[in-house]
């Protein structure tokens, strides 16, 4: 079975690569779900695509986490039904991670699955969410509870969309790029530690978008269903996810706005704590760990927490669906580009959290 997606990537990839591909497919087969907001802020970039499709083939919806639910899916399924979309047709999802997750999920269910193409418009979407076929919506307050694996036939990473993102959104996506750079190593790591995410233009971002998309795609091609190699993409996420969920749901003893913590910020904190554990357990090089700490101090505010909060954090890590036994599973690293799957105990996790606080807070 072919577990791969075509990757179109470049500053004008939508116009120069995706549009010719769709013309080849046959335009009457193509439908589009588009985040409403993009019509206002990226009309020029979208024009070659919008101009191609009949108006009635385009559904505009609101996107953002508060819309990632079944009511929004109903709108999409109604659109598919009323537009008589059939199994030979292709749906192009254009938007951030919420839209590509939701559009992909709707397509995976409708008539037992129709083809999708993702056009991510946020950095998080380009380097992570739009690739790899994990689709989902939130249900009963639980994030991504309903979902399916449904690989897009193509993904188009066009960095022209990045110019309108907030600093917070750029830094969130950058957290995943830093993770990929550790997993890829070599030149990508050298470039990431010299990169300034807040003063770079779309073309400078394109290098990281390209490499991240191709790296994730290659991993997914080997292990779509997350049984082996794909687990290495969880680097930094054992502690990162716990910090993200804990901060979103708890009040700070420091009076700061905890619920504003982004996924990428939490991943950066998780990477520091987990790579310190790798340094202790597997001899991960200290100089690379300190390069990562420098990058974090230059770009991210520290996440403030006390050791009194370790127990609820550990509880969250133990609930992680990646665990296979009662112990906490995590992705360790021997060196750049050398991930290893390990199980760790409470003491080791607390040492990682201690180290993060000593270095960053
Ligand atoms: N499927 C996966 O493997 C995977 C991986 C990572 C994240 N995700 C999911 O992705 C979602 C987060 O994605 P996200 O960070 O892209 O957030 P998002 O999709 O919520 O988008 C953030 C906001 O940016 C707006 N937006 C989109 N493109 C824009 C642009 N170019 N300029 C300005 N604003 C723009 C959106 O309307 C939204 O309000 C989460 O629901 C998460 O679960 C999925």
From TrEMBL:
GO MF terms held by the record: 3-dehydroquinate synthase activity
Keywords carried by this UniProt record: Cobalt, Lyase, Metal-binding, NAD, Nucleotide-binding, Zinc
Isomerase recorded as keyword: no
Needed co-factor(s): NAD(+); Co(2+)
Domain 3-dehydroquinate synthase N-terminal span(s) in chain numbering: 60-170
Matching Gene3D superfamilies: 3.40.50.1970, Dehydroquinate synthase-like - alpha domain
EC code: 4.2.3.4
Pfam families, A to Z: DHQ_synthase, DHQS_C
Domain 3-dehydroquinate synthase C-terminal, chain residue ranges per copy: 173-323
InterPro entries from the UniProt entry: Dehydroquinate_synthase, DHQ_synth_AroB, DHQ_synth_fam, DHQS/DOIS_N, DHQS_C
Matches recorded under PANTHER family: 3-DEHYDROQUINATE SYNTHASE (PTHR43622:SF1)
Entry function: Catalyzes the conversion of 3-deoxy-D-arabino-heptulosonate 7-phosphate (DAHP) to dehydroquinate (DHQ).
Name of protein: 3-dehydroquinate synthase
Gene label: aroB
């Amino acid at each position: 079975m072919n577990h791969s997606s075509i990757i179109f990537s470049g500053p004008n990839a939508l116009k120069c690569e995706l549009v010719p591909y769709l013309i080849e497919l046959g335009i009457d087969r193509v439908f589009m779900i588009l985040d409403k907001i993009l019509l206002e802020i990226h009309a020029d970039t979208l024009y070659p695509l919008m101009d191609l499709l009949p108006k009635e083939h385009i559904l505009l919806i609101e996107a953002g986490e508060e819309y990632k639910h079944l009511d929004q899916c109903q709108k999409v399924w109604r659109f598919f039904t009323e537009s008589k979309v059939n199994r030979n047709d292709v749906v192009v999802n254009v938007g951030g991670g919420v839209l590509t997750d939701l559009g992909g999920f709707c397509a995976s269910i409708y008539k037992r699955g129709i083809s999708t193409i993702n056009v991510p418009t946020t950095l998080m979407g380009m380097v992570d969410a739009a690739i790899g076929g994990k689709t989902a919506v939130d249900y009963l307050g639980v994030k991504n509870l309903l979902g399916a694996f449904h690989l897009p036939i193509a993904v188009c990473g066009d960095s022209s969309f990045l110019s309108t993102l907030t600093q917070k959104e750029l830094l969130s996506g950058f957290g995943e790029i830093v993770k990929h750079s550790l997993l890829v190593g070599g030149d990508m790591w050298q470039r990431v530690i010299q990169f300034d995410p807040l003063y770079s233009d779309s073309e400078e971002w394109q290098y990281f978008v390209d490499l991240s998309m191709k790296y994730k795609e290659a991993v997914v091609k080997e292990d779509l269903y997350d049984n082996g190699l794909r687990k290495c993409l969880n680097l930094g996420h054992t502690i990162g996810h716990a910090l993200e969920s804990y901060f979103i749901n708890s009040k700070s003893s420091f009076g700061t706005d905890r619920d504003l913590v982004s996924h990428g910020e939490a991943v950066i904190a998780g990477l520091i704590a987990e790579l310190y554990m790798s340094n202790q357990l597997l001899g991960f090089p200290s100089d690379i760990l300190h390069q990562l700490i420098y990058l974090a101090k230059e770009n991210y505010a520290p996440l403030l927490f006390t050791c009194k909060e370790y127990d609820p954090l550990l509880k969250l890590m133990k609930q992680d669906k990646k665990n296979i036994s009662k112990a906490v599973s995590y992705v360790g690293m021997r060196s750049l580009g050398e991930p290893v799957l390990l199980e760790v105990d409470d003491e080791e996790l607390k040492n990682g959290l201690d180290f993060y606080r000593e270095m960053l807070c």
